[in-house]
Design brief:
Layout (H helix, E strand, L loop, with lengths): L1 H5 L4 H16 L7 H29 L3 H169 L4 H12 L11
Helix pairs in contact: 2-4, 3-4, 4-5
């Protein structure tokens, strides 16, 4: 009895439930129209508000004791069932509408995805076809260019070899001419060198001869002066003796006596 009396806090909720159930029974909104859908969603929001009010009462009623709280929870669960039943019943058509909208949107998205995938596959197939055509064309052009390049390279090689042979012949000619010029230059240089050498040797010989002649004359002069001096010492009639004395001096036969030239 005490528990029953303590749960009287839910009496206003019970009265509210009876009123809500009565109102809900009278409602027949056309949820297929925007106005009916709006009205139904507003009614569900009101019911959710009443359910929230019940939760507040439950929390307050449960605060005093654990056992009482268990009873409060059980009673609240019992009283919550009618609200949930109305919400579930009224939300079903709305959920059906949302599910239908979602399914339609997903179908559109899937159709767009399939179309995009097909378009991409077609684009890739066309791209692959054009790439193969381009590759074949490029291979054909490369083959033709390779033939042209081979002919041109052969022509250039022939010209190059001809130029190399002509250049080698010209170089050989120039080398022969240069060799002949060098030989002539060397002959002239050798001739000039020999001539200069001959002239130098002649000059040296002339200088030596001049030196020899000059030295001979100088010696003759010095010896003549010595002879005159000796003749004055020996006196008249001593010419032979003077010659013998001078010869002895010249030959170094008289110690510590010499002629200074």
């Amino acid at each position: 009895m005490t528990e029953e009396l303590n749960l009287t806090v839910f009496n206003p909720i019970q009265a509210l439930i009876a009123e809500v159930q009565q109102q809900d029974a009278l409602m027949e909104p056309d949820y297929t129209t925007p106005e009916g859908e709006k009205e139904l969603r507003a009614w569900v929001r009101i019911i959710k508000g009443h359910r929230a009010s019940l939760e507040k009462v439950r929390v307050i009623a449960k605060a005093n004791a654990l056992e009482y709280g268990r009873a409060v929870d059980a009673k609240a669960k019992e009283l919550k069932a009618p609200f949930d039943k109305i919400i579930d019943a009224r939300m079903k058509p709305l959920d059906d509408i949302e599910n239908a909208k979602r399914a339609a949107a997903e179908a559109i998205v899937e159709a767009e995805r399939v179309a995009a995938a097909k378009a991409e596959a077609d684009r890739l197939a066309d791209l692959e076809r054009r790439e193969k055509e381009a590759a074949a064309k490029e291979a054909e052009l490369k083959a033709a260019q390779a033939k042209i390049d081979a002919v041109e390279n052969a022509r250039i090689q022939a010209i190059r070899e001809k130029n190399i042979a002509a250049e080698a012949a010209e170089n050989a000619r120039k080398e022969a001419e240069a060799k002949a010029v060098r030989a002539e230059q060397q002959r002239i240089a050798d001739e000039l060198s020999q001539r200069a050498e001959n002239e130098l040797q002649a000059k040296i010989a002339a200088d030596k001869e001049a030196e020899r002649v000059a030295d001979k004359q100088h010696r003759a002069d010095v010896e003549s002066e010595a002879m005159t001096a000796i003749g004055r010492i020996v006196g008249p009639g001593g010419a032979e003796l003077s010659i013998r004395i001078l010869a002895a001096i010249i030959d170094g036969k008289i110690p510590n006596v010499k002629i200074v030239y």
